[in-house]
C-alpha cells in the first residue's frame, strides 16, 4: 500500500477509528494503544495529519508532513498530539470525546515546485488537489489540501496564507529565497462524533 490510490474506504474507516481509539485510551486510561494487526497492515512510511473538529471549529491539528514514521506509528502519535499538544488550544478532555470529530489525511511525499518566476506558482498549484509547504532558512508552514476548498481560496490566497502560517509576510512566496512544495492527500473523516467515516476527497489522483 505505497500509493494513495490503494487506500480503500475500509482502510480509511480503520485509520479514523484508530485515531479516535488512541485519544480515548490516553485520556481515559493514560495508556497508548498497541494493535498488532493494525501495525502490520500499515507498516510503511507515510506522512499523516490528524485534525480534530468540534462544532465546526478546529480543536487541534498536528501531523508529520514527511514520511519519517511508519503510518501505524505516525497516526497514533499525530492523534495524541492533536488532542493534547496543539499549542493553540487547551488539551482535549474526556468529556469532549463524544463532541469531537476526527479527520485523517494521509500524505504523499512533498515535492518542491520548480519555477523561473514565482508567478508561475499560480498555474502550477491545483486547488483541491495540492497541500502546500512554504519554507525558508529559518521557518516553515504547512496547509493541508482541504483548507483552501473550505475557505474558497484561489491559488494566490492559498500561497499567502501558507506564508502567514510559516510566520512570514504574506507576499514571501514571491521571494526567491522562499521554497514552495506541494503534496497530495487522501482524507477520511467522521460524519459526526464517533459516527460513520466517509472519504472526504475525490481528487484526480484517486
Structure overview:
- The protein has 206 residues and is an alpha+beta fold.
- It folds into two domains: 4-107 and 185-199, Hypothetical protein ph0010, domain 1 (Glycoprotein, Type 4 Pilin, 2-Layer Sandwich); 111-183, Hypothetical protein ph0010, domain 2 (Dna Ligase, domain 1), CATH 3.30.1490.
- Helix content is 30%, strand content 24%.
- The chain contains six helices and nine strands.
- The chain has helices at residues 9-29, 36-41, 71-84, 121-124, 146-151, 155-165; strands at 47-54, 57-64, 100-107, 111-112, 131-135, 140-143, 179-183, 185-190, 197-199.
- The strands form two sheets. The protein has a five-stranded antiparallel sheet with strand order 2-1-3-8-9. A four-stranded antiparallel sheet has the order 4-7-5-6.
- A hairpin with a 6-residue loop joins strand 8 and strand 9 (197-199).
- Helix 1 packs across helix 3 (71-84).
- The protein is globular and about 50 Å long.
- It starts with 8 loop residues before the first helix and ends in a 7-residue tail after the last strand.
- Residues 202-206 have low confidence and may be disordered.
Give the gist of this structure.
The protein is of the alpha+beta class and 206 residues long. 30% of the residues lie in helices and 24% in strands. A 5-stranded antiparallel beta sheet has the order 2-1-3-8-9. Strands 4-7-5-6 form a 4-stranded antiparallel beta sheet.
Amino acid at each position: 500500500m505505497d500509493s494513495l490510490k490503494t487506500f480503500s474506504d475500509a482502510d480509511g474507516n480503520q485509520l479514523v477509528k484508530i485515531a479516535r481509539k488512541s485519544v480515548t485510551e490516553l485520556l481515559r486510561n493514560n495508556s497508548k494503544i498497541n494493535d498488532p494487526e493494525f501495525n502490520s497492515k500499515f507498516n510503511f512510511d507515510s506522512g499523516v495529519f490528524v485534525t480534530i473538529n468540534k462544532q465546526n471549529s478546529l480543536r487541534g491539528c498536528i501531523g508529520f508532513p514527511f514520511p519519517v514514521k511508519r503510518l501505524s506509528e505516525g497516526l497514533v502519535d499525530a492523534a495524541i498530539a492533536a488532542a493534547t499538544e496543539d499549542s493553540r488550544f487547551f488539551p482535549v478532555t474526556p468529556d469532549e470525546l463524544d463532541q469531537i470529530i476526527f479527520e485523517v489525511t494521509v500524505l504523499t511525499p512533498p515535492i518542491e515546485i520548480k519555477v523561473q518566476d514565482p508567478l508561475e506558482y499560480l498555474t502550477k498549484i491545483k486547488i483541491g488537489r495540492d497541500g502546500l509547504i512554504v519554507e525558508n532558512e529559518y521557518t516553515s508552514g504547512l496547509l493541508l489540501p482541504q483548507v483552501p476548498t473550505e475557505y474558497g481560496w484561489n491559488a494566490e490566497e492559498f500561497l499567502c496564507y501558507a506564508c502567514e502560517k510559516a510566520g512570514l509576510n504574506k507576499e514571501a512566496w514571491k521571494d526567491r529565497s522562499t521554497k514552495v512544495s506541494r503534496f497530495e492527500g487522501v482524507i477520511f473523516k467522521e460524519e459526526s462524533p464517533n459516527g460513520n467515516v466517509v472519504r472526504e476527497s475525490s481528487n484526480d489522483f484517486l
